[in-house]
Amino acid sequence: MSEAEQSSLRAQSVTVDENNDGQRLDNFLITQLKGVPRSWVYRVLRRGEVRVNSGRSKPARRLQLGDVVRIPPLRRSEATARQPTQNLIELIEQSIIYEDGLILIVNKPAGLAVHGGSGLSHGVIEILRASRPDSPYLELAHRLDRDTSGCLMLAKKRSALRTLQELQRAGKIEKRYLALLAGRIRKGGWRADLPLQKNTLHSGERVVRVDPEGKPAVTHFTVLRRFTDATLVEAVLETGRTHQIRVHAAANGTPILGDAKYGSEAADRALRELGLRRLFLHAASLRFSWPEDHRNFAIEAPLPAELQTVLAALETHEKNVRTDGV
Predict the structure, then answer these.
(1) Are 288 and 297 in contact (CB under 8 A)?
(2) Angle, alpha carbons 90-95-100 (nearest 5°)
(3) 3-80 architecture in CATH?
(4) Which of the residues are catalytic?
(5) How does pLDDT run across 26-47, given as a tens digit for each residue?
(6) Which of 63, 88, 89, 316 is paired with 190 by a 20 to 30 Å CA distance?
(7) Can you tell me whether residue 233 is helix, strand or coil?
(8) Pick the CATH number of 85-170 from 3.10.250.10, 3.30.2350.10, 3.40.50.1110, 3.90.550.10
(9) CATH class, range 176-301
(10) What angle do helix axes 25-32 and 38-46 make, rounded to 10 degrees?
(11) Whether 83 contacts 5, CB under 8 Å
(12) Rounded to an integer, what distance in angstroms lies between the CA atom of residue 301 and that of residue 265?
């Protein structure tokens, strides 16, 4: 058994350093206990087995520099359970498109969640923590839907996370997406300014709807390429609500192709014949300036091969239709 595994079988006392100053207690524990199920973390918190400066604490407590956190011992099965496979680790490591001492950006594959939960053992963040067991800090700076591919930002220091969050709140990170929408859109572009409200169905499924009582949400759409029954667009976020692009596209009467939640089954059926097997939504680029040294970042994630293949099939289909019509 490794030294890390042995230590996990004993109670630990960890002193909060500058990398974790201001972090929530639950997130601190998840970071410290790489690979341990979140359910265990919240169970020991509920039981009061985690102590901060010898006192019981709630999950949302913000830790401060110098706090001492007592982490209860794990059973051997908990310490070694649910580690991501080497194939998953290699997939994510090979998907990194930018990294420095402060931030890391991954071209996230479609079908992989950004974090574990809701029946998932692990997502991108758990896989990266498993692949870098000696990294003192690694946190998601934002989210992408499980079925969306593309640029995903992570912070390697607490200070970097705060900077990225502040830039996003101020609207100073430009996020551009590529999406293939159902139907041939004649207008060159449009601005969707529609408030969105999250709802949870009886089944537990989360659905977002346009609702006057919802949170403000703005998306700018620009047409890039028209096909007979589909349109490739660029979507730029002015806000970052859950499922924002997907719901705004559907509200226009032109849902994203391959969207099982908000899309058109008839339109999707036609595209499946051309090879579309997933949501055609890709976080294509990020642009921002780092406040401290004014470095300009322009990070691009290439369109995945499976989506390039769909566009090529559409172009071939268009040519065949024109030829047949001659």
Answers:
(1) yes
(2) 105
(3) Roll (3.10)
(4) 145
(5) 888 887 876 677 778 888 888 8
(6) 316
(7) strand
(8) 3.30.2350.10
(9) alpha beta
(10) 130
(11) no
(12) 28
Distance CA 31, CA 140 (A): 11
Is the pTM higher than 0.70? The answer reads yes
Same fold, 85-170 and 176-301: yes
Query: For residues 14 and 7, what is the distance between their CA atoms, to the nearest angstrom?
Result: 12
Determine which helix (DSSP H) or strand (DSSP E) holds 247, and give its type and residue range: helix 244-251
DSSP string of 3-32, one letter each residue? HHHHHHTS-EEEE--TTTTT-BHHHHHHHH
Q: Can you tell me the distance from the alpha carbon of 4 to that of 81, in angstroms, rounded to the nearest whole number?
A: 14
pLDDT at 289 over 70: yes
Q: Round to whole Å and give the CA distance between 183 and 230.
A: 4
Secondary structure element (H or E) that encloses residue 236, with its range: strand 230-237
Listed by start position, the domains of the chain span 3-80, 85-170, 176-301
Average pLDDT over all residues of the chain: 88
